[in-house]
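User: Predict the structure for this protein chain, please.
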Amino acid sequence: MSRKSIFSLLALLMMLTLSLSMVSIVTAGHITEIATPPANMGTISSGETIDLTFTATFADSIQTIVAIEVDYTADAWSYDGFDATMGAEDVADQFTETDVAGTVSLTCGTVTPSNGILSISLTFTALPSEGDYTFPWSYSFSAAQTGEPPPIPTTEDGSGTTQAHITAEIPETGTLSVDTTPVKGEVFVDGASWGTAPQSQVVNVGIYTVTFGDVAGYTKPDPEDATVLDGETTEVIGTYTPITEPDFAITVNPTSGPVLQGESTTPTVTITSIDGYSETVSLSASGQPTNVSVIFYPTSGTPTFTSTMTINVEDAEPGPYTITITGTGADTTTHTTTYTLTVIEVYVHTETVTDSGTVNATGADTTVDIDATGNHTITVSKYESNPGTGFAGDTGKYIDVHIDDPTNVTEIEIRLYYTDAEIAGLVESSLRMHWCNGTDWVTCCTTGVNTTDTDGYSGYMWVRITSETTPSLTDLTGTPFGAAGEGTERPVGGIFGYVNRLYLLVYMNQWLITGILMLIAGICTVLYWRKQKSA
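Assistant: Here is the predicted structure, written as structure tokens:
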């Protein structure tokens, strides 16, 4: 070989080597671990579902291409959709899905991310059409890279069939109804949300666990197992419990009452703990009129506790007043209640009598005769309204007679004068004096009425009091007296006795006595004529 030929060959080899060094070495992606649906899914009851799942592992792929096709019998199955993931990422929205004439096609030109474990599941529900059915399916997976020249992608294709048998057994069903009270919350059945109550669905018979969602300000109900029977409705009602903060309540007993000028009353205030309230509560009052004081004992305490509220009425103006009682907790929690105070005006006349004499309390339409030895001070008061409870036939006249010392007193006679207007609608002859024994109005045992007009009055009611009567002399330490009568006429005639029982006997029995006398006269007449006839 000539030297020129050798140089030419060397030059050619050098050019070939340089050319090869400029070409990139390119490899395709890898597809491994391909899994397809099993050949036989076994027996499926109508209403149940099956999943046809395809998986493959992609590596070194820049462009991943997927195509899957499944044929199914539309009369026996309903297609419910598919799920697709690459690794832990949902990629279902990257696929194009078609379902036409019993053929489902899924395609994606570029799956992102392109590497990882790809899993695609198609879900079908068995219809009530018993028989054996086959799902023909096929798949195509491609993994490619870029380069010069373009590499040939790695492609894996496959096909097969999956068989399943549908049994047309219709499951037993019932209705599960779920509601909540007093607020509406979200309800869950076996962990799946049914939405906001109330909800009702037809489900297969069985036991279901019902749970409830959170609602602000409430404690949610506990989970509940509900048993659904064939053809029946099972109701579940969850009760939400309000979340309450510790608190207290304040009450007063009684809530109202009359008080005479110069006297007092002592209602009881109760502070009750709610949900474990344990702060110190202080008591105060407002709204009381001038010359009325309110004192609490104790003035504060830890609930539950009671406090005596002393209301002292001095020379306050008569009338009803609303006293507001306020309880204030150490945490500034505040509650109030009210007490209605009725101040009753009192006329007072005081006079000292030596031995026997008469006290004239004209402002109270009252005189008091006393039979005694020594000096005695008698006080007569007049109430503008009833100082006690109501009673039948009330004339609206109320007085109080007080003696400083009943010793050496033989008898006291109290006279309460009246006018026709004051006893309108009442039978004058039935008027009697009553006294308040601390609880009720009771008719005095020695009382009567004088209906003779006297000093501009139409008459007076009287009561005589000794150490043996009711009330007795020892009761005259501040005893209210009132007067009452009846609304129907009594028989005319008779005398008014000292004791009511005698009064009733005379008036109620006079016609009985007359009848007895007439009967005796008749018997005597018959006997007389019989004697005359026999003679």
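Helices lie at 3-21, 500-534.
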